[in-house]
Amino acid sequence: MKGIVKLIVIASTAMLVALMGVMLYLNQVKEQQSEGEIKEAQKELDMILEDVEQVSFTEEDEIIPLYLTGKKKNVMTFKDASLSEIYTSAYTKKIDKELEVEKKRGSRRIDRAVFAWNPYGTQPMSLYIYFPTREGYSLNYTISVDSKEIPDFTRTLNNHNSGNLTTEQEYSIIGLLPGRKNYITLRLCGESGKVKKQLTYSIDVPSLPKDIDAQLSMTKGYNQTLLGSGLYTVYGNSVKNKKKSYLLFYDNSGYLRSYIPLKSNCADNIEELDGCLFFPYSKNQFVLLSPTGQVRKIYTLEDYELYGAFDYDNSGHIYALADKIGKKSSIHDTIIQMDLKTGNILKEINLGTYLKAVKAKARKNVKKKTRLNWLDLNSIQCMDRSTLILSARELSSIFIVKNVNKKKPAIRSILGENVLWNGTGQKKKLAKKAGSFTAQFGQHTVTFGNSGSYQDLTPEYDENGNVIESEEEVTARQYYLYMFNNNYGNSKTLPSIHYSSYSAGTKKKKAANSYYYQYLYDQTENVYRLEQKIELPFSAEYGSVQVFQGNIIAGSSDKKVFMEYTGDGKMLHTYDTSFVFTKVEKNDMKHYWFY
Questions:
Q1: How far is residue 132 CA from its own chain's centroid?
Q2: Using CA of residue 142, residue 146, residue 147, residue 150, what is the dihedral sign?
Q3: Whether the Cβ atoms of residue 556 and residue 593 lie closer than 8 Å to each other
Q4: Nearest in space to 574 (alpha carbons), one of 46, 218, 47
Q5: What tens digit of pLDDT does each residue of 266-312 get?
Q6: 3-state SS of the chain: helix, strand, coil percent to 5?
Q7: C-alpha to C-alpha distance for 516 and 235, rounded to whole angstroms
Q8: Contact between 563 and 574 (Cβ < 8 Å)
Q9: Residue range 545-573, pLDDT digits in tens
Q10: How much is the pTM?
Q11: How far is Cα 541 from Cα 526, in angstroms, rounded to an integer?
């Protein structure tokens, strides 16, 4: 019996040791995977980092040269075309046919792929690539140049198939640096992510147009590894410059990695819809662009002209800031709803209908012959399919509008200083402040975010100064509102307001700073509190903020500079441009070019 017990003890001990060994091994694997995932993520930061090894080549490495011109030309090129021609379905179909002929010519594989330089004209720094594979694969690539000072650009391309696996490898490679020899290392990866085939091409990339900054001056701050992974998208580069209009995409090191030409200074944001990019390319036209640059669809606003941003409601509609053409009485006070299936304008919402007294008061303070800009709406966001958040610069106020998808929309709430709304009959809709602070003046890019757990913004206190906890179940709806607070008061329609008494800048005297503002807003109680305030370089007319991957992206237009901060306000990077812009945001482009 003792022998049996002894055997059981020995067996149990052995099993325990084995189990501990397995657990130790699994923990090591888990740690290795975490380290591997961190290193892979750091490759997409586009920075020179100690933990990220740069791609290098030896004399033994086989590099396949690509030529855009000359006798050895092996990349398809196309004649320059006007933007009016490029942004048409007819032009896209014409290029499609030329590419199809080339795709069927000869046996195609990764080392004999079809290459075409910016075939559709919409992505001038892009290289189209096509080759078939017998099994489903994904394609990862790295772009490098002969400089230790310039980081590699590594991404996995998105083929928009299940598991990102396809037998038709057709992409647009972006990230190439202009005016240099670029090396493109392609990696064909299987389902597990393991590299099945790797090779490198080289190509001499043409120079940029003179009116585009190839590299921005950059200042490093707190900790560059905390930067968000993505590309800074700069809008409105021609707003105050005699330049052509572009969407500009810069990496974390300040290098231009792509750009899209526009017909006019109209784009204020982009949307990634169904694997395509949706944006306005002229004052009355939107385009749906495929990742390879194909024009999938054109939307024309026959009776309207865009004056600001738009947003998607996730239900097949966009809401855009647009004026009716020929409208004489007032401008920048109208929103339209467009159906993405048909392109039809379903609704026009004119805030003058709901704020008649405010508009009438504004008219008395300006010359009658001028078109009245009494609101100057400058940003819009869909909170859900029925609610819009609007920013009105002229009134330094934020509007929350409900029932926009129904027959009778209504203003639910207004956030702004009380003095702006005296004698307007709107005092009941004004949100109350929780605490003592100055509200925003001349704000831009107002957006919302979830607040998490409930907070009592107007608590009651006992005689000892302690908060009296409510026993009632809390059902209030709360969320954050983020904005670029220009801290600038210059309203032609409200000349009696003494903005300087609120420490806001005026035409006569600039303020020391603009600010990043974050409010916590309680919709049920219609009350808000200033949760966070970060000093930013002063900008009177334009400016933007965005919360991205926990960081804060801010653009100070007047100073021609944009920045990225940690969530608690530590500066990570600052980028200086040579031009005034309207807005900067960061996008990882993971639903468009990348996976």
A1: 32
A2: negative
A3: no
A4: 218
A5: 899 999 999 999 999 999 999 999 999 999 999 999 999 999 999 99
A6: 15, 40, 45
A7: 19
A8: yes
A9: 999 999 999 999 999 999 999 999 999 99
A10: 0.92
A11: 29
